Amino acid sequence: MNGKSHPALLPAGLVDLLPPEADFEAGVMNGLIAAFGRYGYDRVNPPLIEFEDSLLGGSGAALAPQTFRLMDPVSQRMLGFRADMTLQIARIATSRLAELPRPLRLSYAGQVLRVKGSPHRPERQFGQVGAELIGSSSSRADAEVIVMAAKSLRELGLSGLSVDLGLPSLVRALFDSLELSQTVAGERLRAALDQKDAAAIAAIPNIPVALFEALIGAAGPADRAMATLRKLKLPAEAARELDQLDSVIAAVKSDSPNLKLTVDPVEFRGFEYHVGVTFTLFAEGVRGELGCGGRYLVGTPDKMEGGEPATGFTLYVDALLRALPRPQRPNRIYVPISASDGTADVLRTQGWIVVEALDGGRPETDEARRLGCTHVYLDGKMRPLEEARETL
Question: CA-to-CA distance for 91 and 217, rounded, in angstroms?
Fold first, then answer.
């Protein structure tokens, strides 16, 4: 061994996307951006690298363990590769686009890089496509992004979609009212809720066990979950959060009555900085989530009070590629040197993918097959490859 790696070997979690997967990915991303554009969302394209203090400021600090860093040889300041694009969109909205009328609708698509993968997503570099609606606190805004995400995925060919709604601010309000925040009991309770572990909840002293067990038991179809939650005796702030969730559900049903909705009132992981309704997108027969989003605040250091209301979502392109049906391979036609001048250009204007001969050393049908073509241009006609071989 000479210590050199094979040129095709890449670091763990990184892959080359080859034909036809690379084109498939580009088509999915472009299709989603086009779908968002029909709802009035304008695309922005932030840089892959930013100053570390900008990228990881405020709620971006939660992504610090997942962020690659390097020293900028020009500014002598630390830079970070983005591990998520959402906070970059918030930065653009509150700085470069601060004077534009609200609500502001923005979309984005690009690659992100993370220090480590996860059990469900071992890839460390993957594509994100998303949209953010900034400047409105209306439940109609939450419903708009939920419905837009679902309908855009359906347009791509996904079926069996469902949306799991969450309300981390409800649990947060309960913790505050019970003075459990920043306590050992609160940490134990938070972990038990994450695991949906009723036995662990029952073992925690001096908490309303029945209330938190009821919250776990409420998870399920939206109508049943809301009926259960409405029966609980909740503090005023928690009740207001529940009212907001009810309004969002009603608005989503109005716009997309056939969309399957579920509610998990204690789901908190990944939504630590959200301040209202959150959601996760799933599809039948597809392992893991397709994307997630929810309400947050932009423009303040801790993103928990003050600032500008916003809601949005991120879709994970790698998950979509696994979930979507593979597109049919487009027709490719081989045009030999013997074809008349201009033939290839005419065929391209007709929508063909044209591969032109560079020499005449091989039989046309053999060369067409070797280069992955489905058709060959012979004697002034476009012929399917198998038909052309039979006539020769």
Answer: 39
Write b or e for each residue in 304-336: b if 16 or more Cβ atoms lie within 10 A of its Cβ, otherwise e: beebbbbbbbbbbbbbbbebbeeeeeeebbbbb
Amino acid, single-letter form, for residue 23: D
Contacts of 168 (CB under 8 A, 6+ apart): 267, 268, 271, 272, 274, 278
| Closest to 62 (Cα-Cα) out of 313, 277, 268, 311 | 268
Angle between helices 139-156 and 21-37 (to 10 degrees): 140
Dihedral of alpha carbons 384, 385, 388, 389, sign: negative
Angstrom distance (rounded) from CA 170 to CA 235:
10
- What does the buried/exposed string (b/e) look like for 167-180 if buried means 16 or more CB atoms within 10 Å of the residue's CB? bbbbbbbbbeebeb
Q: How far is CA 37 from CA 40, 247, 281, 288, in A?
A: 5, 26, 20, 27
Q: What is the pLDDT of residues 113-167, one digit of tens each?
A: 999 988 778 889 999 999 999 999 999 999 999 999 999 999 999 999 999 999 9
Per-residue confidence at 268, pLDDT binned at 50, 70, 90?
confident
CA distances from 384 to 201, 274, 372 (A): 67, 56, 12
Indicate the range of 150-164, 170-184, 293-307 predicted with least confidence. 293-307
Cα–Cα distance, 33 to 143 (Å, whole number): 19
279: left (phi over 0), alpha (psi -120 to 50) or beta: beta
Tens digit of pLDDT for each residue in 347-370? 999 999 999 999 887 899 999 999
The answer to whether the predicted template modeling score (pTM) of the entire model surpasses 0.85 is yes
pLDDT at position 212 is: 94
Amino acid type, 121: R
Q: Classify each residue of 43-72 as buried b or exposed e, where b means 16 or more C-beta atoms within 10 Å of its C-beta.
A: ebebeebbebebbbebbbebbeebbeeeee
Q: How far apart are CA 192 and CA 173, in angstroms?
A: 17
Task: List the structure tokens of 33.
Answer: 């951006």
pLDDT at position 304 is: 46
Which numeric CATH code is attached to 13-160+284-327?
A: 3.30.930.10
Residues 298, 93: Cα–Cα separation, whole Å: 9
* Burial of 131 (C-beta count, 10 Å sphere; 0-12/13-18/19+): buried
